[in-house]
C-alpha cells in the first residue's frame, strides 16, 4: 500500500485499530449497497424524494422521526451491549480503554439526543395537529428543516465511528478534558458540531409547536379543553425554548476553544472550566424534563383511554406539568453538589430538586385515581404505562435520595447514580414513547402492532430492566465508579456486574422482539378500519387511520374536554365521522420542498469541514446554508389548493360522506 | 385560510389590525418570530453571563480599560440607535402604504448598519494589531465572542434587509411583504436592545472599572 | 394448589430479600461501613431519607397493585365503575400535602448535615491538613505540616480530623474514599476543602470518581489510617529515607501515565499554591485565601512567584490542532 494511502486509512478510517472497525465498515457498506440496490430495483428513488424527503406533512415527518429514533435506539443499544459485555467480568480485555471511552460517550449522547429527542418529536408531529384539530403545524417548512437538521446532525455524529474517530469524553464533555491539550482527535469536534446542528433543529421545533398550539387550535378548544398530551407538548416546548440556547452557547464556546484557540474553558490564560459545567447543566437538567414531560402526556392519554374514565384532576395535571417545567430551571447545580459550592448554595439546590417530587408525585396519584373506579384493559400501550408506574416510583425515590446533598457526596459518579438515571429515563421517556408508539401506531399506519409478540417484548424488556439496573444501585454502595472500563477482582463487584450484563442482554432481546413485531405486523397486523381502535377520547380518533393528507375535511368545533368521548356518550360521534359535503371548502396546504433537505445537507458539509479544520469545505457548506435561506425568502408561492371536489372524493372513498 | 386557521374567526376586525397582522398565516409567523427572539435573547444572556464571569480573567494581558475606545463605541452606539429609528420609520411607511418611502428608509437603515459593522470591524482590527486577540486571554475571548456575535447578527440583518428590500421593490406592499418588513425590523430593534446592554455592561462599566 | 404456589413464591421472595439484606451488611458495601464521623453522618442521612421516602412509596405501590387488580376489565367484575368521576378537592389536597410535608422534613435534615459537613468533625482535636493534587492518572498528597509528600497513598492518623485541600493539575477529577465519607471534586485553579476522619486503623480504598480519560480505571489510591504514634513513625521514616520531590520530578508526574506508590521526604515550597494560582486561582481570591489558610502559607502571592517553577503547560497553550 502506498504510504499516503496507508496514512489516510490509519488516520481517518482507523483500519489499524482492529476488527471492530473492519466489521462496522463491512456492515455499513453492505447496508448502504442494500438500500441503494433495493431502491433502484423497485424504482423507488423518485417516490422516496417526492413523498418523503421533500415532504412537509407533519405526519410523514413524524414517521421519519420515529424510524430514525428506532434506528438510533438500535445503535445506542448496541453500544450498551458492548459496554455491558466488557464489564461482565473483572480485568476484561474485550475492549480497550480507548474503545470503551468512545462507546460510553456515544451511547449516552445518542440515547439522549438522537434517540429520546427524535422520539418525542415523532410524537409531537404525529399527534399534536390531529389532537387540536389542525391541518398541519404552524410552520410546516420549518418543521421539515428541523427534521433534516436533526437527521444530518445524527449522521455527522454516527459517521465519526468509522471516519476520524468517535468522541471519548463522556456525553457531558467536560473541559479541560475536552480541550485540545488533552483531546486532539476529531472525535470531540464531531460531538460539538453534530449536537450544535441538531440543537438548532430542536429549538425550531420548540418554537413551532408552541406557536402551533397557541394559534391553531380548532374553534372552541380553549386551553383548558386541550388533551393532556398537547399540554405536555406546551410544557416541553417552553422548556426547549428556554434551555437549548444555553447548550448552543456551551457548545459554541468549547468549539471556539478547540478551533479558534480561545480560552473560555482552558486551564491556563484565565479560562474557567466551571463555566462550561454550569452552562451545560442549565440546559442538561431541563433536557431530561424535555424528554420526560411528553411521556407524562402519553401516560395521561393512555390511562384515561384504557381505564375508560376521565383523567382525574385535570387541572392539577396541567398545573403540575407547568410547575415541573418551571422548577426544572432551578435545580441544575444538583449535578455538581460535589464541586465545592457553599453549603447555602447546595442546600438551595437540594431543596429545589426535592420539590420536583411534589408535582411528579401528584401526577402519579392522579394516574392512580384515574384507574380507581375505572375499567382497566391491559393492551400494549396500557401495559407499558402500568409498568412505568412502579418503575418510576422507585426511580423517583432514588432521585429524592440523590437530591439530599450530603448523601449525594456518596452517590455521585457512582453506579447508584447510573442506576437512578437509567431508571427514570427508561421508565419515563422510553416506556412512555413505546406506549405512545403502540397507541398511535394505527393512526400512523392503519394497522395495529401484534399483541402477542408485543407482550413477549414487554416482559423481556421489563424483567431485563430490573435485572440490569437493580444490581447497579448495590454496586454504587460498593464504591464502583461510573466510566471505569475495567475493574479489579477483589472488590466484590463481579457477581452484580455479571447479573447486570445478563439483564442488559434480556433487554436487548426485548428490543429485537419489538423489531420482529413491527416486521410481522406490517404483513399480518390487524388492520384498523374504524380509525378508532382503542375506543379513544380525543379528536385524532375521529379521523380515519391513517389520516388523509389534509387531516380534517371540515375543522370540528370543540365544546368539551375529551370531545370524542363526550360525543360517544351522547351518541353524536357520527357528527365527527360523517362529513356534510356542503361544508367542505377548498383547502390550502403547504407545498413540498426539497430545500430543507438540501439545507440539512449543507449543514452537514459545513460541520464536516469544521470537524477536520477543512475550511474550504466548511465555507462551501455555509454558503449552501445561506443560499437555501435566501432562496426561501424569495419563494412566495409556497401553498396550493386542494379543491373541495377532490376532498369530497377522498372522503367519499373513505366512506365518510 | 385553512392551514393556519386561528381560534379567532379569521375575518373579524380585519380592518382594525395593521397590515402585517391581517392575514392569519402571516400573523402566526410574527408570533413565531417573537418566540425566536426569546431564544435569541437567552443566547445573548448566556454570553453576557460568560463575559461577566471572565472579564477579570485577563491573564496579565490587556484589560477592558486598555482596549476600549470611548470615541469608537460612542459612534457605534449612535449609529445603531439611529438605524433603529430609521428602521421604525420604514415600518411606518409600510403601514402607510408608501413604497418609495419604505424603500428609502430601508436603504438608509442598511447604510447605517454597514457603517456600524465597519466601525466595529476596524475596532476589532486595531485591537488585534495591538496584540489584543481573542486567543490572548479569557477576557478577550469572551469580549470578542459577545460583541462579535452581536456584529454577526447585525451583518445577517443587513443581508436580510437587502433581500427584503428587493422583494418590496418587486412585489410592492401587501400582507406578505408587510409581514417581512415588520419582522426584519423587529429583529433589528432587538439587536438595538442587545447593543444597549453591551454598551452598558461591557463598554461603560469596562471603562469605569 | 394455587395457595401452595403462592406460599412457595413467598418463601422464595423472602429468601432473596434476606440474602440481599445480609449481603447489604457485607463489608464490601463500603458506603454502609463508614469508619469515621463524616461517613457515619452521611449514612445516617441516607437511612433517614430512605425511611421518609418509604413512608410515601410503599403505600403508593400497594394502592397501585390493589387498583389494577380490583378495577381490571373482566366480565363480571363487580367493583364500582364511575367513568365521569374526575374531581375531588379533598383527595387532591391530601396528595399535594403529603409530598410537601415529606420534602419539608427531609429538607431540614439535608440543610443541617450540609452545613455540619463544612466544619471539622471533631472540635477538640487539632486538625491536620493534606493538600491533594489529582494528576493524570495519579494522586499527589503533600503534607504542609510534616513536609513530606506521597503518590497514590496517603497516611493519616486516626481520630484526627483531616482537612483535605483539593485541586487538580489535569482534567477535573473527584476525590472519593467511600469508607471515610463522600467525595469532592478536584478542579484546576481551585482549592476545595473536604473534612474527613478515620476512627479505626486500616487501609481504605480511594479512587478518582470523575472521568479523566484513558487511564481513569487505574486511578486509585489507598488511605492508610494508623495510630498517632505509627503515623509519626511513618513521617520520620519517610523524612529520613525517601528522596526529595523536585520540580523536575513534579513535571514528570504531571505527564499522563499510571504508576504505583511513591514517597518523598520534601516538596518544592509553594508548589500547591502556585499550581492553583497559575491555573485560575488568582481570579478567585476567596479560594486562594482558603488554600493559604489551610496550608499555613502566606496568602499574599505575587505573579512572579506564581510563574517561577511552573512549567508552562505546552499541551494546553498550543491552540491549533493541525
Automatic annotation (TrEMBL), chain A:
Ranges for domain Cytochrome oxidase subunit I profile: 43-559
InterPro entries in the cross-refs: Cyt_c_oxase-like_su1_dom (IPR023616), Cyt_c_oxase-like_su1_sf (IPR036927), Cyt_C_Oxase_1 (IPR000883), Cyt_c_Oxase_su1_BS (IPR023615)
Classification via CDD domains: Ubiquinol_Oxidase_I
PANTHER family to which the protein is assigned, alphabetical: CYTOCHROME BO(3) UBIQUINOL OXIDASE SUBUNIT 1, CYTOCHROME C OXIDASE SUBUNIT 1
Tagged with keyword Translocase: yes
Pfam family, one: COX1
Alphabetically ordered keywords of this record: Cell membrane, Copper, Electron transport, Heme, Iron, Membrane, Metal-binding, Respiratory chain, Translocase, Transmembrane, Transmembrane helix, Transport
The family this protein is said to belong to: Belongs to the heme-copper respiratory oxidase family.
Recorded metabolic or biological pathway in which this protein acts: Energy metabolism; oxidative phosphorylation
Entry superkingdom: Bacteria
Protein name: Cytochrome c oxidase subunit 1
EC number: 7.1.1.9
Lineage: Bacteria, Bacillati, Bacillota, Bacilli, Bacillales
Coiled coil: none
Subcellular location: Cell membrane
Topology with respect to the bilayer: Multi-pass membrane protein
Keyword Membrane on entry: yes
Transmembrane portions of the chain: 20-42, 63-83, 103-128, 140-163, 190-216, 228-256, 276-299, 311-332, 347-369, 381-405, 417-441, 453-475, 495-520, 597-630
Catalytic activity: 4 Fe(II)-[cytochrome c] + O2 + 8 H(+)(in) = 4 Fe(III)-[cytochrome c] + 2 H2O + 4 H(+)(out)
GO molecular function: cytochrome-c oxidase activity; heme binding; metal ion binding
One annotated GO biological process: electron transport coupled proton transport
GO CC aspect terms: plasma membrane
Primary subcellular site in the record, as a coarse category: membrane
TrEMBL record, chain B:
InterPro entries: Cyt_c/ubiquinol_Oxase_su3, Cyt_c_oxidase-like_su3, Cyt_c_oxidase_su3-like_sf, Cyt_c_oxidase_su3_a-hlx, Ubiquinol_oxase_su3_dom
Gene Ontology MF term list: cytochrome-c oxidase activity; oxidoreductase activity
Domain Heme-copper oxidase subunit III family profile: 1-207
This protein's record includes keyword Iron: no
TM regions (residue ranges): 31-53, 73-93, 102-119, 139-166, 186-206
An example Gene Ontology biological process: aerobic electron transport chain
An annotated GO cellular component: plasma membrane
Pfam families tied to this protein: COX3
Keyword RNA-binding: no
Similarity comment: family membership: Belongs to the cytochrome c oxidase subunit 3 family.
Protein name: Cytochrome o ubiquinol oxidase subunit III
Annotated source species: Alicyclobacillus ferrooxydans
TrEMBL record, chain C:
Any one annotated GO CC term: plasma membrane
E.C. designation(s): 1.10.3.-
Transmembrane domains' residue ranges: 43-69, 90-111
All residue ranges annotated as the Cytochrome oxidase subunit II copper A binding domain in the record: 125-237
Region spans: Disordered: 295-322
Membrane topology summary: Multi-pass membrane protein
Keywords linked to the UniProt accession: Cell membrane, Electron transport, Lipoprotein, Membrane, Oxidoreductase, Palmitate, Respiratory chain, Signal, Transmembrane, Transmembrane helix, Transport
Molecular function via GO: copper ion binding; cytochrome bo3 ubiquinol oxidase activity; cytochrome-c oxidase activity; oxidoreductase activity, acting on diphenols and related substances as donors, oxygen as acceptor
Record has Transport as a keyword: yes
Pfam families hit by this protein: COX2, COX_ARM
Reaction catalysis annotation: 2 a quinol + O2 = 2 a quinone + 2 H2O
Domain Cytochrome oxidase subunit II transmembrane region profile per the UniProt entry, residue ranges: 23-121
InterPro entries in the record: CcO_II (IPR045187), CcO_II-like_C (IPR002429), COX_ARM (IPR010514), Cupredoxin (IPR008972), CuRO_UO_II (IPR034227), Cyt_c_oxidase_su2_TM_dom (IPR011759), Cyt_c_oxidase_su2_TM_sf (IPR036257), Cyt_o_ubiquinol_oxidase_su2 (IPR006333)
GO biological process: ATP synthesis coupled electron transport
Source taxon at top rank: Bacteria
Homology family: Belongs to the cytochrome c oxidase subunit 2 family.
Role noted for this protein: Catalyzes quinol oxidation with the concomitant reduction of oxygen to water. Subunit II transfers the electrons from a quinol to the binuclear center of the catalytic subunit I.
Protein name: Quinol oxidase subunit 2
Amino acid at each position: 500500500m502506498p504510504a499516503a494511502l496507508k496514512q489516510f486509512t490509519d488516520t481517518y478510517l482507523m483500519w489499524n485499530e482492529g476488527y471492530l472497525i473492519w466489521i462496522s465498515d463491512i456492515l455499513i457498506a453492505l447496508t448502504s449497497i442494500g438500500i441503494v440496490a433495493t431502491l433502484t430495483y423497485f424504482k423507488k428513488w423518485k417516490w422516496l424524494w417526492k413523498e418523503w424527503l421533500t415532504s412537509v406533512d407533519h405526519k410523514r415527518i413524524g414517521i421519519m422521526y420515529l424510524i430514525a429514533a428506532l434506528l438510533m435506539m438500535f445503535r445506542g443499544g448496541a453500544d450498551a451491549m458492548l459496554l455491558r459485555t466488557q464489564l461482565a467480568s473483572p480485568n476484561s480485555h474485550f475492549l480497550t480503554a480507548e474503545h470503551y471511552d468512545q462507546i460510553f460517550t456515544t451511547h449516552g449522547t445518542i440515547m439522549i439526543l438522537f434517540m429520546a429527542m427524535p422520539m418525542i418529536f415523532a410524537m409531537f408531529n404525529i399527534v399534536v395537529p390531529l389532537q387540536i384539530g389542525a391541518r398541519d403545524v404552524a410552520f410546516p417548512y420549518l418543521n421539515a428543516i428541523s427534521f433534516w437538521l436533526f437527521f444530518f446532525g445524527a449522521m455527522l455524529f454516527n459517521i465519526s465511528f468509522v471516519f476520524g474517530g468517535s468522541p471519548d469524553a463522556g456525553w457531558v464533555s467536560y473541559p479541560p478534558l475536552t480541550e485540545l491539550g488533552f483531546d486532539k482527535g476529531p472525535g470531540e469536534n464531531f460531538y460539538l458540531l453534530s449536537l450544535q446542528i441538531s440543537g438548532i433543529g430542536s429549538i425550531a421545533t420548540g418554537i413551532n409547536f408552541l406557536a402551533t398550539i397557541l394559534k391553531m387550535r380548532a374553534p372552541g378548544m380553549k386551553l383548558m379543553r386541550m388533551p393532556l398530551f398537547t399540554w405536555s407538548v406546551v410544557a416541553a416546548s417552553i422548556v426547549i425554548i428556554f434551555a437549548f440556547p444555553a447548550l448552543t452557547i456551551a457548545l459554541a464556546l468549547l468549539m471556539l476553544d478547540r478551533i479558534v484557540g480561545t480560552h473560555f474553558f482552558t486551564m491556563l490564560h484565565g479560562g474557567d472550566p466551571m463555566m462550561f459545567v454550569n452552562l451545560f447543566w442549565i440546559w442538561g437538567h431541563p433536557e431530561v424534563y424535555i424528554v420526560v414531560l411528553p411521556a407524562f402526556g402519553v401516560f395521561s392519554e393512555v390511562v384515561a383511554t384504557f381505564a375508560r374514565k376521565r383523567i382525574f384532576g385535570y387541572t392539577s395535571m396541567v398545573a403540575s406539568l407547568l410547575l415541573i417545567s418551571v422548577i426544572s430551571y432551578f435545580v441544575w447545580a444538583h449535578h455538581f453538589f460535589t464541586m465545592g459550592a457553599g453549603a447555602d448554595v447546595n442546600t438551595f439546590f437540594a431543596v429545589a430538586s426535592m420539590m420536583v417530587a411534589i408535582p411528579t408525585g401528584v401526577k402519579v396519584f392522579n394516574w392512580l385515581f384515574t384507574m380507581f373506579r375505572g375499567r382497566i384493559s391491559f393492551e400494549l400501550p396500557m401495559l407499558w404505562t402500568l409498568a412505568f408506574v412502579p418503575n418510576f416510583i422507585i426511580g423517583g425515590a432514588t432521585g429524592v435520595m440523590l437530591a439530599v446533598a450530603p448523601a449525594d457526596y456518596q452517590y455521585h459518579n457512582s453506579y447508584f447514580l447510573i442506576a437512578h438515571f437509567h431508571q427514570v429515563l427508561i421508565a419515563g421517556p422510553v416506556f412512555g414513547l413505546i406506549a405512545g408508539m403502540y397507541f398511535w401506531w394505527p393512526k400512523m399506519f392503519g394497522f395495529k402492532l401484534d399483541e402477542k409478540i408485543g407482550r413477549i417484548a414487554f416482559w423481556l424488556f421489563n424483567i431485563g430492566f430490573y435485572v440490569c439496573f437493580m444490581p447497579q444501585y448495590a454496586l454504587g454502595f460498593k464504591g464502583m465508579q461510573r466510566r471505569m472500563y475495567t475493574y479489579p477482582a477483589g472488590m466484590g463487584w463481579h457477581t452484580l456486574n455479571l447479573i447486570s450484563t445478563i439483564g442488559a442482554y434480556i433487554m436487548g432481546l426485548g428490543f429485537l422482539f419489538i423489531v420482529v413485531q413491527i416486521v410481522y405486523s406490517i404483513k399480518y397486523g390487524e388492520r384498523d378500519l374504524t380509525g378508532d381502535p382503542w375506543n379513544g377520547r380525543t379528536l385524532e380518533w375521529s379521523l380515519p387511520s391513517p389520516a388523509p393528507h389534509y387531516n380534517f375535511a371540515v375543522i370540528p368545533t370543540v365544546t368539551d374536554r375529551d370531545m370524542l368521548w363526550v360525543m360517544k356518550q351522547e351518541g353524536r360521534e357520527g357528527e365527527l365521522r360523517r362529513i356534510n359535503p356542503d361544508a367542505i371548502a377548498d383547502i390550502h396546504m403547504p407545498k413540498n420542498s426539497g430545500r430543507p433537505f438540501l439545507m440539512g445537507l449543507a449543514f452537514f458539509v459545513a460541520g464536516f469541514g469544521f470537524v477536520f479544520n477543512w475550511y474550504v469545505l466548511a465555507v462551501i457548506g455555509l454558503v449552501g446554508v445561506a443560499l437555501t435561506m435566501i432562496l426561501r425568502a424569495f419563494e412566495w408561492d409556497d401553498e396550493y389548493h386542494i379543491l373541495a371536489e377532490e376532498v369530497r372524493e377522498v372522503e367519499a372513498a373513505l366512506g365518510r360522506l | 385560510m385553512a392551514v393556519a386557521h386561528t381560534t379567532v374567526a379569521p375575518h373579524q376586525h380585519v380592518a382594525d389590525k395593521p397590515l402585517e397582522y391581517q392575514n392569519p398565516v402571516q400573523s402566526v409567523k410574527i408570533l413565531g418570530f417573537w418566540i425566536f427572539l426569546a431564544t435569541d435573547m437567552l443566547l445573548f444572556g448566556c454570553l453576557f453571563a460568560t463575559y461577566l464571569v471572565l472579564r477579570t480573567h485577563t491573564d496579565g494581558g490587556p484589560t477592558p480599560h486598555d482596549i476600549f475606545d470611548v470615541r469608537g463605541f460612542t459612534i457605534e452606539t449612535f449609529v445603531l440607535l439611529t438605524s433603529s429609528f430609521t428602521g421604525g420609520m420604514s415600518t411606518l411607511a409600510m403601514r402607510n402604504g408608501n413604497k418609495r418611502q419604505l424603500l428609502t428608509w430601508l436603504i438608509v437603515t442598511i447604510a447605517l448598519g454597514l457603517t456600524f459593522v465597519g466601525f466595529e470591524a476596524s475596532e476589532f482590527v486595531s485591537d488585534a494589531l495591538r496584540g489584543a486577540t481573542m486567543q490572548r486571554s479569557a477576557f478577550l475571548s469572551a469580549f470578542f465572542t459577545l460583541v462579535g456575535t452581536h456584529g454577526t447578527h447585525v451583518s445577517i440583518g443587513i443581508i436580510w434587509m437587502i433581500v427584503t428590500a428587493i422583494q418590496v421593490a418587486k412585489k410592492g406592499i401587501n400582507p406578505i411583504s408587510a409581514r417581512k418588513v415588520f419582522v426584519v425590523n423587529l429583529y433589528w430593534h432587538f439587536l438595538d436592545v442587545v447593543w444597549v446592554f453591551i454598551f452598558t455592561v461591557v463598554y461603560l462599566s469596562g471603562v469605569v472599572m | 394448589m394455587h395457595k401452595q404456589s403462592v406460599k412457595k413464591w413467598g418463601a422464595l421472595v423472602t429468601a432473596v430479600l434476606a440474602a440481599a439484606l445480609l449481603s447489604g451488611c457485607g463489608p464490601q458495601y463500603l458506603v454502609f461501613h463508614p469508619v469515621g464521623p463524616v461517613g457515619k453522618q452521611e449514612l445516617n442521612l441516607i437511612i433517614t431519607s430512605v425511611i421518609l421516602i418509604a413512608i410515601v412509596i410503599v403505600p403508593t405501590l400497594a394502592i397501585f397493585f390493589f387498583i389494577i387488580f380490583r378495577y381490571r376489565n373482566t366480565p363480571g367484575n363487580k367493583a364500582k365503575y364511575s367513568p365521569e368521576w374526575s374531581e375531588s378537592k379533598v383527595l387532591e389536597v391530601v396528595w399535594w400535602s403529603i409530598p410537601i410535608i415529606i420534602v419539608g422534613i427531609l429538607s431540614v435534615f439535608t440543610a443541617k448535615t450540609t452545613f455540619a459537613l463544612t466544619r471539622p468533625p471533631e472540635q477538640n482535636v487539632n486538625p491536620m491538613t493534606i493538600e491533594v493534587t489529582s494528576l493524570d492518572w495519579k494522586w499527589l498528597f503533600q503534607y504542609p505540616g510534616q513536609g513530606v509528600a506521597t503518590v497514590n497513598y496517603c497516611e493519616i492518623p486516626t481520630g484526627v480530623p483531616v482537612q483535605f485541600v483539593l485541586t487538580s493539575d489535569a482534567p477535573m477529577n473527584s476525590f472519593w474514599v467511600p469508607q471515610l465519607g463522600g467525595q469532592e471534586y478536584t478542579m484546576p485553579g481551585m482549592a476545595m476543602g473536604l473534612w474527613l476522619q478515620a476512627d479505626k486503623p486500616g487501609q481504605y480504598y480511594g479512587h478518582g470518581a470523575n472521568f479523566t480519560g484513558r487511564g481513569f480505571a487505574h486511578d486509585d489510591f489507598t488511605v492508610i489510617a494508623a495510630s498517632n504514634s505509627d503515623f509519626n513513625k511513618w513521617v520520620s521514616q519517610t523524612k529520613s529515607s525517601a528522596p526529595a520531590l523536585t520540580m523536575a520530578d513534579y513535571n514528570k508526574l504531571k505527564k499522563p501515565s499510571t504508576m504505583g506508590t511513591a514517597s518523598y521526604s520534601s516538596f518544592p515550597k509553594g508548589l500547591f499554591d502556585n499550581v492553583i494560582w497559575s491555573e485560575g486561582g488568582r481570579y478567585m481570591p476567596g479560594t486562594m485565601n482558603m488554600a493559604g489558610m489551610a496550608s499555613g502559607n502566606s496568602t499574599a502571592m505575587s505573579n512572579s512567584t506564581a510563574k517561577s517553577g511552573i512549567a508552562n503547560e505546552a499541551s494546553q497553550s498550543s491552540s491549533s490542532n493541525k
